[in-house]
Amino acid sequence: xxxxxxxxxxxxxxxxxxxxxxxxxxxxxxxxxxxxxxxxxxxxxxxxxxxxxxxxxxxxxxxxxxxxxxxxxxxxxxxxxxxxxxxxxxxxxxxxxxxxxxxxxxxxxxxxxxxxxxxxxxxxxxxxxxxxxxxxxxxxxxxxxxxxxxxxxxxxxxxxxxxxxxxxxxxxxxxxxxxxxxxxxxxxxxxxxxxxxxxxxxxxxxxxxxxxxxxxxxxxxxxxxxxxxxxxxxxxxxxxxxxxxxxxxxxxxxxxxxxxxxxxxxxxxxxxxxxxxxxxxxxxxxxxxxxxxxxxxxxxxxxxxxxxxxxxxxxx
Amino acid sequence: xxxxxxxxxxxxxxxxxxxxxxxxxxxxxxxxxxxxxxxxxxxxxxxxxxxxxxxxxxxxxxxxxxxxxxxxxxxxxxxxxxxxxxxxxxxxxxxxxxxxxxxxxxxxxxxxxxxxxxxxxxxxxxxxxxxxxxxxxxxxxxxxxxxxxxxxxxxxxxxxxxxxxxxxxxxxxxxxxxxxxxxxxxxxxxxxxxxxxxxxxxxxxxxxxxxxxxxxxxxxxxxxxxxxxxxxxxxxxxxxxxxxxxxxxxxxxxxxxxxxxxxxxx
Amino acid sequence: xxxxxxxxxxxxxxxxxxxxxxxxxxxxxxxxxxxxxxxxxxxxxxxxxxxxxxxxxxxxxxxxxxxxxxxxxxxxxxxxxxxxxxxxxxxxxxxxxxxxxxxxxxxxxxxxxxxxxxxxxxxxxxxxxxxxxxxxxxxxxxxxxxxxxxxxxxxxxxxxxxxxxxxxxxxxxxxxxxxxxxxxxxxxxxxxxxxxxxxxxxxxxxxxxxxxxxxxxxxxxxxxxxxxxxxxxxxxxxxxxxxxxxxxxxxxxxxxxxxxxxxxxx
Amino acid sequence: xxxxxxxxxxxxxxxxxxxxxxxxxxxxxxxxxxxxxxxxxxxxxxxxxxxxxxxxxxxxxxxxxxxxxxxxxxxxxxxxxxxxxxxxxxxxxxxxxxxxxxxxxxxxxxxxxxxxxxxxxxxxxxxxxxxxxxxxxxxxxxxxxxxxxxxxxxxxxxxxxxxxxxxxxxxxxxxxxxxxxxxxxxxxxxxxxxxxxxxxxxxxxxxxxxxxxxxxxxxxxxxxxxxxxxxxxxxxxxxxxxxxxxxxxxxxxxxxxxxxxxx
Amino acid sequence: xxxxxxxxxxxxxxxxxxxxxxxxxxxxxxxxxxxxxxxxxxxxxxxxxxxxxxxxxxxxxxxxxxxxxxxxxxxxxxxxxxxxxxxxxxxxxxxxxxxxxxxxxxxxxxxxxxxxxxxxxxxxxxxxxxxxxxxxxxxxxxxxxxxxxxxxxxxxxxxxxxxxxxxxxxxxxxxxxxxxxxxxxxxxxxxxxxxxxxxxxxxxxxxxxxxxxxxxxxxxxxxxxxxxxxxxxxxxxxxxxxxxxxxxxxxxxxxxxxxxxxx
Lengths: 316, 266, 266, 263, 263
Ligand SMILES: Nc1ncnc2c1ncn2[C@@H]1O[C@H](COP(=O)(O)OP(=O)(O)OP(=O)(O)O)[C@@H](O)[C@H]1O
Ligand SMILES: Nc1ncnc2c1ncn2[C@@H]1O[C@H](COP(=O)(O)OP(=O)(O)OP(=O)(O)O)[C@@H](O)[C@H]1O
Ligand SMILES: [Mg+2]
Ligand SMILES: [Mg+2]
Fold this sequence. Notes:
The complex is a heteropentamer, with 1 copy of chain A, 2 copies of chain B and 2 copies of chain D. Chain A is an alpha/beta fold. Chain A contains 13 helices and 10 strands. The longest helix of chain A is centred in the C-terminal third of the chain and has 20 residues, at 214-233. Chain A is globular, with a radius of gyration of 20 Å. The two termini of chain A are 36 Å apart. Chain B is of the alpha/beta class. Chain B folds into 2 domains: 1-87 and 166-266, P-loop containing nucleotide triphosphate hydrolases (Rossmann fold), CATH 3.40.50; 96-162. Helices cover 36% and strands 24% of the residues of chain B. In chain B, helix 8 (205-211) crosses helix 9. Chain B starts with a strand and ends with a helix. Chain D has a single domain (45-252), classed as MetI-like (MetI-like fold, Orthogonal Bundle), CATH 1.10.3720.10. The longest helix of chain D has 38 residues, at 161-198. At the D-E interface, helix 1, helix 4, helix 5, helix 6 and helix 7 of D face helix 1, helix 4, helix 5, helix 6 and helix 7 of E. Strand 7 of chain A pairs antiparallel with strand 1 (201-202) of chain D, so a sheet runs across the interface. One adenosine-5'-triphosphate (ATP) sits between chains B (31, 33, 39, 41, 59, 61-67, 93, 221) and C (143-149, 174).
C-alpha cells in the first residue's frame, strides 16, 4: 500500500463484507472498486472475508460479525424463513448461474436424456428441488434418476465418469473451465430448464441496518456500481485483480468468466441501475420454493426480502 | 510424638502402650486369591517392640512377614485386631528404587519429601555412600548398580527417612557374607548413636541373633507366633559368641518345628 | 551337543574343552558409567566347570558375579578373553516373573517356548509345585506371591528349561533357613538324578560349601579370581559335617582377605 | 451396585447441566443469533422433534464407525508390529504413516470416490486413514518400552524373536495399545463425519455427518446441534464401552490401584 | 555419523520413490483425469513452479501449528493431571472431553468466528480442540499405570499426594505422555488445515489449508497435491523433531535397548 492508503484507511469507516465463496470472477466489480479506491472515495474501507462454507455469510451477518454478505437468493429466502431479519439490497448477478452440466461423453444433450442416469449435486436441498423441477419439466420421472451428493467435487465426479451430469456448477465457471479443458460440456442453466429465474448473487444486510445505515449502503452501492463500470471497461485488468486476490485462480479462465458474466450483471429491464432486483421475479421464485416445501411460510406474506432504495438513482 | 491407632474393631488403650514402639495385637489378615478364595496370611499375631528395641521376625517363606511389616506401616489394614505404632519407614523386600533418579537422588528421597532443598539433600545422602561401600556410584542409575548395591541404596533411603520406627524386610538379603557383616555392624552402631525401634524381617537366623533384642518366630502360612526368644546378650556381639550361637540354634529349632508343624498340617 | 564360542579376539581351541561344561578364560568386562567413564566389572577372570560339575562363585557385592553369569549366557560379550559354554539357562538375581502370566505359566515358560502345547506344559510345571512348597498357588499372579515364593517359581522355570548348563544367581537368597535347606537338598537330588553343569552365585558361603564341587572366590570390583577351593567332600553333605565347616571357614577367610585387599586398594 | 453407578453418573450429569444452564443464560443475555449458537432448549426441542430422523441417520454412521474402527485397529496394530519387528519397515513405512496424517481428506476424496464409488468403502477408507495412527504410535512406543530384563530372560530360554514378542513385548505393550485404541475409537466418530462430508452419498439415511452439513447449509442450526449432540453422546458411549472391554483384554493392567491396597 | 544418517534416510526415500514411480505408471496407464489424480511429475512441477507461494503459505500454517500445539499440550497435560488427581474431575470432565472430540468443527466454527473474528485465535481454538485429546488420554492412562509398589514406598515416606505425583507418577507417565504428544503434534498439521478450512479468513497468505481448498475448487489439482505434499513433509519433520526432544525429556525411557545389551 502507498502512503495514501494508510492515511485514508484512518478516515474511512471499516466495512466488513463476507463473500459467498473464494474470491472469483463474480466478485470482479468488488475488487475493481477496492483497487481503484472507489470505496475509499465514499468513506468506506471495505474488507472482504472468505467464508468456510456457503451458509456462513448469512449466519455471521445476522450475528453482527460482518456488515454485509454476498449470498444467493434461495439462501436468503431460507434464512428469512428461519427468522433471520435480513434483506437484499442489490443483485450482483441477475440470473441463476446454477446449471445442469454434462460432458458430451456422457451423451446427455437435454434434460430428458438424464432418464435412468446418475446426477451429482452438492447436497443442497433447494438444488435437489431444482433438479426435480427440471426433470418434471422435461417429462422425466424424478424417481428414475439417481441423485448423488458429491459435495464440492462436482467436476472430479464428472471427469471420473461416476456421474453423467451435475447440478450445482455455474455456467460462468465450471462450464467455462471444462470448455477450456476441451471437454465440451453441455450446459443448461436451471432457469432454462423450468425453474423460475432468480438472482444468483445478492448483497445482503441486516434489516435494521437497512433502516439505520442507509447512507453507508447507498455509498457502498454507488462505489460498487463504479467498480462494475470499470470491469466493463477493462475486463482484463479486472481479471488480474481477481487473480491477485486468489492466487489459485488462472487469469485465462477468470477473464473468460468475467466476459461471459457481464450480460448477467445488468438488469434485463431497460433503464434500471446496476443491482436492480425485480420484485415480481422474487415473488415467483419464493412461491416456487414454498410450493416445494423448502420454506415453511409463504414469503409473499411479511416484509419484502429485497429493497432497491440504496441503488444509485433510486430511493429518496 | 504421634502414635497412631489403626483398627477394624473398637478402640483400645494400645496407643499409649506403643509410645515410640510397636504394638500388634491379635491381628489377622487374609488376602483374596486369584479365584476369589480367602488366602489367610496372618492368624492372631501379637508382636510388641518397646521404644528403641530391635525385634527380629523369622519364619518360613510365605508366612506373612512382609504382610506384617506392611500392616505396621499402615499400607494395609488388618481384618481383625489392633495395631499401633509410631510413624514407620519401610524398607521393602524388593528394592523399589525409582529408575528415573540416580542413586543419591533415590537415597535422598525422604529428605526431598521432607522439604529439604535438592542440593542439601543430595549432599547429606552422598556423604553416607562411602560408609556403605558405594563411593563413586552416586550418579549411577539404578539399572547400573548390582543387586547388592541397589539394596544398600534402598537401605540408606530408609534410614534417612528419620522415622522413629524402621521396618526392614530382609535388608541385607542380597549381600555377600563380608559386606553383610559390615552392614550389620554399621546398623548396630547407627542404632546405638540414635536409638530407633526396629522390626527386622530376616531369613538369616544368625543375623537375627546378632542384632535383635528379641526374636519372634512365625509358623508357616498362615503365620502364628510359635516362639518368642529373648536375646539378652551384651553388645557388641560377634557371630562366634557362645550366646549368639546358642540363640541361633534355639531359633533354628523353633523355625524347624514350626515348619514341620506346617508340613504336618499340609 | 552344541557348544558355542564367543570371543572378541582370535578363535581358540576352547569349544572342544568346554564339551558340556563351561570355560571362561582371561575375560575382562567394563561397563560405561553414567558419565561415560569405564566401570571395570571383571578383570582377567578364568573359570572352568567340567561337565556335570557345580562351581560356586562367591565374592563381595558388586564384584561382577552377575556380569559373569550374563557373559556365560551370552547376554553380554566380553571386552577381551574367551568364553565357551554349552547352552545355558539363567536364573537372574531379580526373579523377572512375567506379571501377565500366573505362577504355573511363568514356571512353564521354557516348555512353551520349546513348543510344548500349553496344557501339557502347565501340567508338567504344576506337578512340581508341591515339591517346592507352592501347592495351591499355581494360578496366583506374581503380585500375589511372597518374595520367596516368587524366587521358587523363577527357580522352577530355570530348571524346566532343560539346558545342560544352569547359571543360578543367588537362587535361594529370599528364602528362610529351613526352606532354603529343603531347596538345597532338592537341587542336590535333582542334579544327581540328571547331572548338569551349574554355575552358582551365592552370598551364603555355607550354601557354597554344601553344594559345590569347587568354589571360586572373586575379589572386590573389578572381580579377579583370588582363590579356587576344591570341595572333595562326599555327598550327601550336611552343614554340620566337619569338612563342610572347614571349607566354609576357608572360603570365608579368602572372601575376607579379598575384601580387605579391596579396602586397602581403595 | 446400581446406586454406586448412579452416583458415578452424577458428576458429569451435574456438570453438563451446569454448562447447559450457563449456555442458555449466555444465549438469552447476549441475544446471540440462534444461527450462530442456538439455545440449549431449542436444541433439545430439535432433538425431540427429529428423534426418528436422527436415529435413522445414526445407524449408517454407527456402522461406518464400527467397521472403520475395526479395520483401523487391525491396520494400526499390524503396522505397529511390523514396524517394531523390522527395522527396515520402521525406517521405510513409519515416516510415510506419519506424513499420511497430514494429507487433507479433501485432496484424496475424489480419488477414493473414483475408485470405490458412492458406497461405504471410501468412507471406511477415510476412517481407517484417520484412526490407525494413534494405535500405531502408542503400540510402537509400548513395544519399544518393554523391560530389557524380561527380554534377556527370554533370550536365555532360546525364545525366537516372535516368542519374545508374544510372551513379553506384546503383553507389556497392550495397555499403551489400548490407550491408542481409546483415542482411535473416539475420533472414529468425527472420522465418520469427515468421511461423510468429503465423499459422495446416495440419499436415504445418509448418516449424521451428511445430515449436519445439510442442516448447516439449510440454516437448520438447532437440528445440526442436535445431531452433533448425538455424535457427542455416541463417542462417549464408544469410549466407555472400550474401558469395559479393557478389563477383559489386559486384566494385569486394569489399574491395580482400584483392586489393590488394603483389599 | 553422517554416513549412518544417510543410510537411515535411504529406506524411506527408496520406498517413497517406488511409490511415486508406481503412481506415475498407474496414472499413465489408467489415463485417470488429472483432476482426480494428477501424476507425480505434474505435482513436482507444481511444487517447483509455486515454491515461493507454497513457502509463503506454509509460514502462517506453521505458526498456527506451533502455537496451537503448544496450547494443546499444556491443556491436555493439565487436564490429565487434574483428572488424575481428582476423582470428581475424572468423572465430570473426562466424559465431556471425550464427547468434545465428536463435535464437528463445522458446527461450532461460526461461533468461534463470531467470538474471535477472522484472525488466528479461532484457528488456534480448533487446533487445540483437535490436539489436546491424545495427550489427555495417554497421560491419564500413563498416570494410572504407575507402579503401586512405588506408591506404597512414597506413602511410607509420608509423601503428599502431590509429591507422590511428582516423584513417581509423573516420571512413570512421561513416556506415555510423549506418545500422546507425538500423535498430537502430527495431527496438529491436519488440525491447522481443518482450522483454516472451517473458519473465515482474510486473504494475503492465508495458509496452506486455505490454499488447498482454493486450488481444489479452482481445479488446480496438481498444486493442491503439491501443497498437501508440503504438509506431509512438515508433519514428518514435526514428528521426528519431537523424537529428538524426547531423549532429553525422559532419558530413562529412551529405548533402553538402543543403549543397552552388550554395550
Ligand atoms: N497381594 C496379594 N494377593 C494375594 N495373596 C497375597 C498377596 N500378597 C501376599 N499374599 C499371600 O500372603 C502370604 C504371605 O505373604 P508375605 O509376602 O507376607 O510372605 P513373607 O512371609 O514375606 O514371605 P517371604 O519370606 O517369601 O517373603 C503368601 O501366601 C502370599 O501368597
Ligand atoms: N548396566 C550397567 N551399567 C553400568 N555399570 C554396571 C551395569 N551393570 C553392572 N554394573 C557395574 O558392574 C559392577 C558389577 O556388577 P554385578 O551386577 O556383576 O555385581 P554382582 O557381583 O552381581 O553384585 P551383587 O552381589 O551385589 O549382585 C558393579 O560395580 C556395577 O555397578
Ligand atoms: Mg516377604
Ligand atoms: Mg549380582
